[in-house]
Amino acid sequence: MAKIRKRELINDHPVMKWTGFAILMLYTVTILFALVWALISALKDFYEFRKNLFGLPQTWMFSNLKLAFENLFVPVEGREYTLIYLIGNSLAYAFLYTVIPVFANIIVAYGCAKYKSKLCDIVKAVVILRMVIPIVGGLASGLTVSKFIGTYDNLPLAAIFQFTPQGAHFLIFLATFSGISNEYMDAAKIDGAGHAKIFFSVMLPLARNTIIAVGIMVFIGCWNDWETAMVWFPSYPTLAYGLYRFQFSTANATASIPLQLMACIIAMIPMLIILMFFKDKLVGNISMGGIKG
């Protein structure tokens, strides 16, 4: 108890507070500076970018936006996937690989938290073991198995196989549902609710903030993932994969760094919109308790 009290006094000390504030402000300024610099540099031509790296452009090259739209494409088997197709594939991949795994983690975590059994202990142990045991060199065998069962280069079918509890997200949902009082379940049972109604009408709304926060983080991770499209779904090139190829382009129209930065700005816009709409869910407090009286 004395150690906890001492730790609280240290954390409440003005020096600690101002030090933490200064570190966070420095980090924020660094991130904002990089974003503003990228936006300004994306509106320069190549020669001005080389001569005036940090200054404002003398001529604002808004035409770079049109050039990025026209030249950001991925050739696959003789077909050019333009920016619209890349965005569509990114949305499909991010949506499927967010909804299916997150829902699987929610269901299994809820069952392990509210229905105690030896099977739940086994599931938790397997999830933790998968996190701590490094799986090195499994790409070749994974590709062989994927081609054998038909999930290679088949985005919808491969997404179904993601319906498994995995990683830290399972543990987050497990802690969330464990922190929700069983009194809510008991009250719903008294009102005649079954297991499905309790889960969908009682538990999911109580865990809504956590679900939204985890879902957004997973969606952003999938949106920025270019390796999966390159290795597992070559016929479904995503916007992130297009940007990856874009940086190695040697064509005169796309080798310009300002044009590449403009392409990155385009890829950022959907994520910025999502963060603007759901920022309160990401930083909001999650309060749980039981039923009073």
| Fraction of residues in helix | 55-70%
The top level CATH class name of the largest domain: Mainly Alpha
Distance from N terminus to C terminus (CA atoms, Å) equals 31 Å
Total domain units: 2
Class inferred from helices and paired strands: mainly alpha
Mean pLDDT: 83
Tally of DSSP β-strands: 2
- The number of helices is 15
CATH fold topology of the largest domain: MetI-like fold
Tell me the radius of gyration: 24 Å
What's the architecture of the largest domain in CATH terms?
A: Orthogonal Bundle
Structural shape: globular
Low-pLDDT sequence parts: 285-293
Order of helices and strands: HHHHEEHHHHHHHHHHH
CATH superfamily of the largest domain: MetI-like
- Strand arrangement, major sheet: 1-2
Estimated share of beta-strand residues: under 5%
Major β-sheet profile: 2 strands, antiparallel
Keywords: Cell membrane, Membrane, Transmembrane, Transmembrane helix, Transport
Subcellular location: Cell membrane
Family: Belongs to the binding-protein-dependent transport system permease family.
Membrane topology: Multi-pass membrane protein
